[in-house]
């Protein structure tokens, strides 16, 4: 299992992960709030774009660095990739759900209002529903898919020497 090591690889990995999670989480929230089909397609596209931009910025500059520090500060065998993946996923999902649920609360308020719930009650309700969906989604679907695609299409094999194209052609 390859992990991003260069800044360029980290950028691509982050873009891939954000894309997958934002698409799934946006449609999950539209479905659970019975909004699919009630808001125009243009609003959904706008929500996807805004969600992606916000998620990528938050993941890159706030949650990602904090999650890495927390995950690798835990006392576990760092040579076991599975432990690293699980601890990092836990902290990333926790941070992203806490922040992105604010975005979800704002868009829900814009389209339907809060109903009879208090603001803080609505926020924690959204956090709980999003967390229960996002953690398994990250661990079992998006995370493994992105790591597989990243390894296949982006990551340069470590043992393969990088030589000019002319030297490879015989």
Map the helices and strands:
Blueprint: H1 7-32, H2 41-73, H3 81-112, H4 119-153, H5 165-168
Helix pairs in contact: 1-2, 1-4, 2-3, 3-4
Keywords: Membrane, Transmembrane, Transmembrane helix
Transmembrane segments: 12-32, 44-64, 85-111, 123-142
Organism: Alkalihalophilus marmarensis DSM 21297
Structure commentary:
- The chain has 5 helices and no strands.
- The protein is mostly helical and 170 residues long.
- It has one domain (7-154).
- The chain starts with 6 loop residues before the first helix and ends with a helix.
- The model is unreliable at 162-170 (pLDDT under 50).
- It comes from Alkalihalophilus marmarensis DSM 21297.
| Low-pLDDT stretches | 162-170
**Strand composition percent:** under 5%
Let me know the largest β-sheet.
none
Structural class given helices, strands, pairing?
A: mainly alpha
Write the element-wise H/E pattern from the N-terminal end onward.
HHHHH
* Tally of domains: 1
- Number-wise, the strands total 0
**Annotation field: number of helices:** 5
Mean pLDDT rating: 89
Distance between the termini: 32 Å
């Amino acid at each position: 299992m390859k992990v991003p090591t260069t800044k360029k690889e980290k950028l691509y990995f982050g873009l891939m992960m954000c894309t997958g999670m934002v698409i799934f989480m946006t449609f999950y929230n539209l479905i659970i709030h019975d909004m699919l089909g009630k808001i125009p397609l243009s609003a959904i596209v706008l929500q996807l774009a805004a969600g992606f931009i916000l998620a990528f910025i938050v993941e890159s500059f706030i949650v990602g660095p904090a999650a890495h520090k927390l995950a690798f500060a835990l006392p576990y065998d760092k040579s076991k990739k599975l432990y690293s993946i699980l601890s990092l996923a836990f902290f990333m999902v926790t941070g992203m759900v806490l922040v992105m649920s604010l975005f979800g609360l704002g868009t829900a308020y814009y389209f339907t209002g809060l109903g009879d719930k208090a603001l803080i009650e609505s926020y924690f309700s959204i956090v709980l529903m999003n967390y229960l969906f996002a953690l398994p989604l990250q661990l079992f679907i998006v995370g493994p898919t992105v790591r597989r695609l990243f390894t296949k299409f982006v990551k340069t094999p470590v043992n393969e020497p990088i030589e000019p194209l002319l030297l490879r052609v015989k």
